[in-house]
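User: For my dataset I need records formatted as: sequence, then structure tokens, nothing else. Please produce one.
Assistant:
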Amino acid sequence: MFLASGGLRHSLFGLPLVALAAAASAETAPERIEVEGEMVDSWCYFSGVMGGYEAVVGSAHHTCALWCAKGGIPVGLLADDGTIYLVLRLEGADPLAEPETLLTVASDRLAADGLHYQRDGVNYIVVENVVENLGITNHNHEDYGPVPGFAIPEPGQ
């Protein structure tokens, strides 16, 4: 249905679309944040394929995190509050570059300053500045071994 108003035609159905478009823009507008946490392998963290959350972080998962990053699996920054930010770009790196830059910080604890985007409930970060890199501080391989037992498939699987 259209209504005439001052010679302009307006759709009654268009008003909700305008409101939705405004909400979508607000959701994707970047916000500058500083976040601290550990660089993690997002596939293993979210899928549980290599064990629970406590086992897919730190030194016990470092080698797998390197393999996944090299293979193109998105790297995440696990913030201290439990939020995962998928890293779209790391300080000074070309966003389309090979993942070697991300390999240098796999399993490291970082303080990062950057732009936070959120879309459809997923958090992303463009890291513009690594404020501090403490290296690998979560030495949980003492608890899980260099290759956690649960990461080795059972025979016949």
